[in-house]
Amino acid sequence: MSPDLPMSKRISVKIILSVMTLMLLFWVLPACAETQAYPELPLEEMRIAVYTKTFAERFGLPAPEPGTEPSGGLQAIEFAIEKGPKWTPYYYCSFYLYVDSSLPIKYPEEGVAGGKYMLISATHFFGRTHELWMKWPLQDRRYSSRLDGKYNRKARLATKNYVSGKRGAITDLRYRGFHKEILPGLSYAKLGCPPPWVIIDGHNKVVDIWVQQQGNTDYRSRINSDPGDFIKFSIPNVVLQKIREWGRQAKDMNKQIDARTRENGNQ
């Protein structure tokens, strides 16, 4: 501050600077607190994809490493850890499947493509909270729930030795989106779930992804899964290892997010 300024002006400048500092703290501290509220994972590093030789030749990719190729009509699979939407800021496991479009898969809807998030009430400003959703007419709430439910209970993660009630383990995967022919002869589906204990906590060497095939069974009202109702894709071991490694990290982070959420709720 210039010594040539009159005393009154110097005092005024000091007051202005103090006010500006307080305003800066007012804006910066909450932002820092919000950043600290939820731990972050290096998501850009937590993705892995494997594919067949045919897929590589078609799309100009490097040749697949020996022993990594998927099979059984699964042309490519990408696994990733991803963050959920704002209303559920947890980490989830995502599976991107690229399969032969000739496979008789029972997709969530009859149309060519669809996505789950557009059907969730919280996606829309007039249903973003439970209180808002409860103001909807009953028939609209029932209709919305039926649409959302179509994306559930149509896919699984299961150990190769799974037999209901006898051995092995199984857990649900939910469809996030699909396209029945995203390119000629190639269908796409995105499946997701919280970090799966079936893989993370187990010592299972072979784990399959199950997708329901065309038929009349509605698993929204049925608990036990009949293996004959599903098409099965074995997860290549290199992907399985990353599911275990990254899944454990995501599971631990979700526990921290839970703890922070409870702390924030008690403040």
How does this model look, in words?
It is a single chain. The protein is α+β, with helices and mostly antiparallel strands. It folds into 2 domains: 47-116 and 151-266, no CATH class; 117-150, no CATH class. 33% of the residues lie in helices and 25% in strands. It contains 6 helices and 9 strands, in the order αβαβββααβββαββα. It has helices at 7-37, 53-59, 130-133, 138-149, 197-200, 237-266, and strands at residues 47-51, 74-83, 91-100, 113-115, 155-159, 170-183, 186-193, 207-212, 230-234. Strands 1, 2, 3, 4, 5, 6, 7, 8 and 9 form a 9-stranded antiparallel β-sheet that branches. Strand 6 and strand 7 (186-193) form a beta hairpin. The longest helix has 31 residues, at 7-37. It is globular and about 55 Å long. The protein starts with 6 loop residues before the first helix and ends with a helix. The relative contact order is 0.15. Residues 7-11, 13-17 and 19-36 have low confidence and may be disordered.
Topology:
Layout: H1 7-37, E1 47-51, H2 53-59, E2 74-83, E3 91-100, E4 113-115, H3 130-133, H4 138-149, E5 155-159, E6 170-183, E7 186-193, H5 197-200, E8 207-212, E9 230-234, H6 237-266
Antiparallel strand pairs: 1-2, 2-3, 3-7, 4-6, 5-6, 5-8, 6-7, 8-9
Alpha-carbon distance between the two ends: 41 Å
Radius of gyration computed on alpha carbons: 25 Å
Strand percentage: 15-25%
| Main beta-sheet annotation | 9 strands, antiparallel
Q: Please count the helical segments.
A: 6
Spans where pLDDT lies below 50 across 5 or more residues: 7-11, 13-17, 19-36
Care to count the β-strands?
A: 9
Helix fraction by DSSP (H/I, runs of at least 4): 25-40%
